[in-house]
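User: My instructor asked us to take a sequence, write out its structure as tokens, and then describe one feature of it. I'm not sure where to start. Here is the sequence I was given:
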Amino acid sequence: MLEDVPRDPFADDPNDPSSAMGDLDDAEPLTAAERDEAITDLADVEVFRSLLEPQGVLGLVLDCPECGEQHFFDWELLRGNLKQMIEKGQPQVHEPAFHPDPADYVSWDYARGYVDGVIDTEERR
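Assistant: Let's start with the prediction itself. The structure tokens for your sequence are:
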């Protein structure tokens, strides 16, 4: 019985559109500083999520320096990308959010400010 495993529709196709991406296994390892930054970012995302998800925030919106557009990342996708960056030196391939409602996402700076505000409030108690 055949398993329900998706088949690559471009397998063995010399015109495979993904061939321009190169081999995904050839990623350069992160430098020690880049790895430390990714680990810090992952810890930040965990804190952001713990405080913002209960408020109805679905994730973060990030400005893409390559295309100039905003990209919407839910918490799990952002976490997965950072973990893969740490482990393999590159983010995972993913599909962009389908018609995200910008009101459901906040910027990194907003999330950082929110966390700082919560910490300041707790310290004053």
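For the description part of your assignment, you could build on this observation: The chain has three helices and three strands. Try explaining in your own words what that tells you about the chain.
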